[in-house]
Specification:
- The structure is a homodimer.
- The first copy, chain A, has about 210 residues and is mainly α.
- The first copy, chain A, folds into two domains: about 55 residues, Homeodomain-like (Arc Repressor Mutant, subunit A); about 140 residues, Tetracycline Repressor, domain 2, CATH 1.10.357.
- Chain A is about 70% helix and about 0% strand.
- The interface between A and B is large, with 46 and 46 residues.
- The structure holds a DNA duplex (30 and 30 nucleotides).
DNA sequence: TCGCTACCGTACCGTACGTTACGGTTCTCG
DNA sequence: CGAGAACCGTAACGTACGGTACGGTAGCGA
């Protein structure tokens, strides 16, 4: 299963599954076949069974999200804040997207009961993947003397908390939370400032920015 | 439906549903009837249909969680930190409990599709309820000159983020996250210290405490 | 004791859906 | 052009499960 290449047609089928998920419609094999204009026999031939189809869909979406690492450019306080803010805004945009919400709902509803652990895939490609990209940034900040912390993981988790707060859970539970680009940008900047206040070695950001 | 009193027997039935949820077994009407030693006919008579049963279960669990408000005692910096830390530890204990995880998974899997909004009930009794208890504490701290912020809601959400980080989502996705009482106590204290560093008016907590 | 109510246990019904089977069409390759 | 593969559309099968019906029993008031 892993390492398999997906043909264009197969990718189109998985996109159809994603479309169904986002639309909130039931993920039956009939619905997928109809939406993708393919036969059920083909679905079973390509993906084995329903769980295989859903797992392939989750992996397919995960493979599409890969986005830019930070460029280890000049590491001063301003660049650090900018990079943190950009990561935060990017992550907030992702977790508030209908696709991410639908995918996480699916993975959570399968967690525990099913043996095909969609939750593990989502965790590996969401939470862990962003960690692997942010932690080098934090380490670079520490090496540059801008940040001070003992454990990178702990610092990263604090950052995640400041950025996301309870947004993801509320969205998953159906809370009508409006995250406009402006709101996201403001929250990202606030989180970056708060993080630097907690872990920075220089003077903290002005209070006016914090208490907005 | 709301305002109805539950008989002892009915409460026992709902506890049986909770037991099934926590055990990860399927929530079929047959399974509930068997576990609760009652007839399906009775289930339908009492709760209308399956959604009514699940909604009653969520409400029943929510009614059991109500826990102590803070006592507006002497409001100095130490007492504030202690109260914040206690709230944080309490909340972490709740969201990491098997019952809470199972309940949130159920509510999330129903969000969007079903019209019986379990997510709304969970939100109202979880996220919003703790907010209504913590915010007066924050306001008291501000009135006492210990804290400084413009918007209580924003400050509260920062606190929530510092306490929970991504713990809840990871647990919902099936991450094997071990939250021992010692870990919870440490995380609660760290979150309280960080919050006071961000929003306190006095000198920040020593760096050694922050970077643990 | 008679009737009534509430409830248990079980059998039953209808539907939804995962899965399989099959006929028909298009494409590829020799 | 002929054979086979790949695939579409649809029909069919089996089961799981929500919901209903019904017989049997215990308690209770008259």
């Amino acid at each position: 299963m892993p390492g398999e290449e997906l043909s264009e047609r197969q990718q189109a089928v998985l996109d159809a599954v994603l479309a169904l998920m986002v639309a909130g419609e039931a993920l039956t094999m009939n619905a997928v076949a109809r939406r993708a204009s393919c036969s059920k026999e083909t679905l079973y031939k390509w993906f084995g069974d329903r769980d295989g189809l859903l797992a392939a869909t989750v992996r397919w979406q995960a493979s599409k999200v890969r986005a830019g690492n930070f460029d280890r450019q000049s590491m001063d306080a301003g660049a650090l804040r900018e990079s943190l803010s950009r990561f935060a805004a990017n992550w907030l945009t992702v977790i508030s997207s209908p696709t991410s919400i639908a995918l996480n709902r699916l993975a959570i509803s399968h967690a525990g009961s099913h043996e095909t652990n969609l939750g593990g895939i989502v965790l590996a490609n969401g939470r862990l993947a962003i960690g692997e990209r942010v932690k080098p940034l934090l380490d670079a900040g520490r090496e540059a003397g801008i940040l001070a912390f003992d454990d990178t993981e702990t610092a990263f988790r604090t950052f995640i908390g400041l950025v996301g707060r309870d947004v993801q859970v509320r969205l998953l539970l159906g809370d009508r939370l409006k995250l406009s680009p402006a709101t996201i940008a403001a929250d990202a900047g606030r989180a970056a400032d708060q993080f630097i206040t907690l872990y920075g070695t220089g003077r903290p950001a002005p209070a006016a920015t914090l208490n907005a």
